Amino acid sequence: MDAWTRAASPVPDDPARHWDGRYRGAGPTAVSWYQEHASVSVELIGALGLGPDAAVLDVGGGASPLVDDLLGQGYRDVTVLDVSAVALDAARARLGEPDGVTWVVHDLLTWSPARRWDLWHDRAVLHFLVDDTDRAGYATQLRRALNPGGGFVIGTFAPDGPAHCSGLPVRRYAPADLGALLGDVDVVAERREVHRTPGGAEQPFTWVAGRLRPAHSA
To answer: Which end of the chain is more exposed for a tag (fewer CB within 10 A), N or C?
Structure first.
């Protein structure tokens, strides 16, 4: 982690309040991470060979359009988890409570999954976990939530991406860094994306898609 990142604002004591405030302040279509369609996510889910029968968990999904895109492709079992009730309420208002979608308001690191899924999707949660203990907790939660041999699609800021976002420090990743954090996995695909924010800034992202090695799934 570089000196700038260490000097940035600390992780909020109340994450729900922080992210609720971000959504209330800007609105769901003006926050920096807004995208009209989750195109890279959908492409990488396809690269894993996971179709509409797969159960998908979108961690930190908030008001993301991924759930819209998946429903449009016929997916019938999508869970969206986020610490911000404001974000999830925005998504629910947009979609009108469709069948097959479960909304969960919870902090990812303290959440206890009640079931398992075939796919873990995360766009821009992991890079906010700058503490090594939290990063290890993230990897543990992924394994708790996935079926043996389950797939994952993860997007984080790239090494040349922002050093902070939404007033918080971030940890940036190359594809190899993500593989090292997750441990016994097989990476199937890697992508680089340059996301353009609603304000016109460019944010380089690293994406990886892969699967747990079944013999090591917990």
So the answer is: C
